[in-house]
Amino acid sequence: xxMLVVSAVVAQLYRLGLELREGWMLGAREYATSAWNWIELAxxxxxxxxxxxxxxxEAAVVRTxxxxxxxxLWAGVFHHFSAFSxxxxxxxxxxxxxxxxxxFLVILSTGILGFGFFFATRSPDEHDFDxxxxxxxxPFFSVFRLALGNFNMEEYSDxxxxxxxxxxxxxxxxxxxxx
Length: 179
Hints:
Blueprint: H1 2-26, H2 28-32, H3 35-55, H4 59-80, H5 88-100, H6 102-122, H7 138-147, H8 159-177
Helix pairs in contact: 1-3, 3-4, 6-7, 6-8
């Protein structure tokens, strides 16, 4: 297993060298404006962190950094599909859609933060907001789930929380219909 980790480190150092070379050739400012370059650098950092954690025998860090690094590596492969005539237009279309979604995501994020803070301060003892995995971020994740329709009305007992829950559902529905 150690030889596989060493080979992954060598491969990532080579990729990091290629990224540094590209940054040198393009110039730092132009290199930094591409999200794909940031994805490549983050993938290298995650895989190298995972390798370091492997040798430090930190299994949780290995799994987390390794899985995120692998996902980012595959995102980089997705970008390379833009070079082909059959897949290039689809990749560029997805990039444009994601770019155009920025204002929508700002409004959605603001709503999630607002309603999440309401539920976190209004109902700190609710079991729905008590989660050991993501801790204090659980109310925001719950509000995101509410926007997707994944909720149980019985978990909200007091009238103000029910009213704000319905207000959040109305906000989410109007926002999603106008996307």
